[in-house]
Amino acid sequence: MLISRHSQVSRAEFLGARHLAKTPGQAKRMGPSPSLNHTVLLCLVVMATAQSERDAEILRNDFQIDPEEGTYQADMETSNNIRMRSSGISYKGDQPETGSVYVEGESSWITPEGKTVLLKYTSDEGGYVPVVSIS
User: Listed GO molecular functions (predicted)?
Assistant: First the structure.
């Protein structure tokens, strides 16, 4: 079952679905991963930057989640050259309320000085690993 952003999925449904993992015969819920919290924080920072420019428009905002596979993909772009792509997958744990999440993505934006900042990252049970380049 694939759910797109255009399906009007509620935040609660998304948060519940992202924790589903396939197991033989039944699905298990997994607890949130601390590394996912870092990824969400990063996305909020990027979106806050976009909100500071009142004239910016969202050009693309695609989001897909597949609860059966425990995966998601997000792709966003604004008229002021802010871009964000992210994808992730949930892995089941040995016990209920356990497991892990792997997320990778990138964000880019233009500084007031006209330089492009590119942030690539991965996040899993080992932590959040950002790589930043400025050109």
Answer: structural constituent of cuticle
DSSP annotation of 90: E
115: its two tokens: 């330089």
pLDDT in tens, 23-42: 444 444 444 555 566 666 66
The answer to whether the beta carbons of residues 131 and 119 sit under 8 Å apart is yes
Alpha-carbon separation of residue 66 from 8, 10, 86 (angstroms): 14, 14, 14
Q: Which long-range contacts (CB under 8 A, 24 or more apart) does 10-18 make?
A: 14/65, 17/65, 17/67, 18/65, 18/67, 18/70, 18/72, 18/88, 18/90, 18/101
Q: Look at 27 and 87; give whichever has higher pLDDT.
A: 87
In the prediction, which pLDDT does 128 show? 93
The separation between the first and the last C-alpha atoms of the chain, rounded to the nearest angstrom, is: 41
Look up tokens 């500071």; give the residue.
52
